[in-house]
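Researcher: I'd like a structural prediction for the single chain below. Treat it as a standalone chain; there are no partners to consider.
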Amino acid sequence: MTAIPFSDLGGTTAEIRAEVEAGWRELLDSNAWVGGAVVDRFEQAWAEYCRTDHAIGVANGTDALHLVLRGLGIGAGDEVIVPANTFIATAEAVVLAGARPRFVDVDPDSLLLTPEALDAAVNSSTAAVLPVHLYGHMADIAGLGAVARRHGIALIEDAAQAHGAARDGIRAGSAGTAACFSFYPGKNLGAFGDGGAVTTDDRALAATVRSLANHGRSEEDRYHHPNIGTNSRLDALQAVVLRAKLARLDEWTRRRRGIVAAYRERVTGLPMRLVEPEPGVDSAWHLLVARVAERDRVRADLAELGVQTGIHYPVPCHEQGAYSQWADGPYPVASRTAKQIVSLPLHPHMTVAEVDVVVEALAKVLVMEEPDDDLG
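Model: Treating it as a single chain, here is the predicted structure.
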């Protein structure tokens, strides 16, 4: 039996259980299951939290990306720049919109897309860039935005792992043309199922995304469909959950940062390297990722000692069978680090005592390791 779980949703669920049960009872009485006042209230609260004018709830984070691309008219013949090491949904949304993903390698320290790499990758077909705030660490959104504006392309934040993160005072979700969030249960702000949202200050784009997510329906007349849309609406049940959790998100983020600080103090001297945010970043710490040699053996040994880990992600996008057709690399950083990264246990209700158990286990399984120059 795993002594230290990689994540534990039980604590966050327990905190909001009574509030959610009350909200669901109200829905049972109203029978307003799709849209309605509950969803409107969450959208308003999420827009305010992200410091944007608009938030549109959708069915999941992948749809959020896809709908923004379509809402901007990006499709056949267009190219969208995507970091090579991200969850496959980032590239998937580009292909679903009819465009081509252009994979770009990442910074060897932050593992994020850089302004320099973006600038070198833009060509005459480039319509947008999708920087990913991986692990909760915000990319250099000001630098990326400057490059995007110079080339006249859209900047769409993939903020699926960055709820509440900020960089130089800029909140994730507020810096680009639009931003896309996932509310998958394991996210820092997670629903009790799938869910997602788009944030933007662009009123016209917000209206288009809302239409596309609701079968292309007109805002003025629900029986007219000027757009070819899809069915991607946020359920009222999930809006109840998300609104209850949103009230606690900052506190849960504070706890995550405290746990990371405890890890930092304790792993000093071990032959491993934490993937840290860049200067000026207040990370949401969705994941605590370390780079180690012999990653698969280390994970197996940790499991034997009762410590559960994850990998985010073991196969870069350009090495995935369905997406390798768009790979024109090489992508040495993404390919190398995909074999090194391991995600350590981290959640808001984790204790320092549990951190001690994890670090003690790491010391046992890493003690025979020689430092790997590739980790630096």
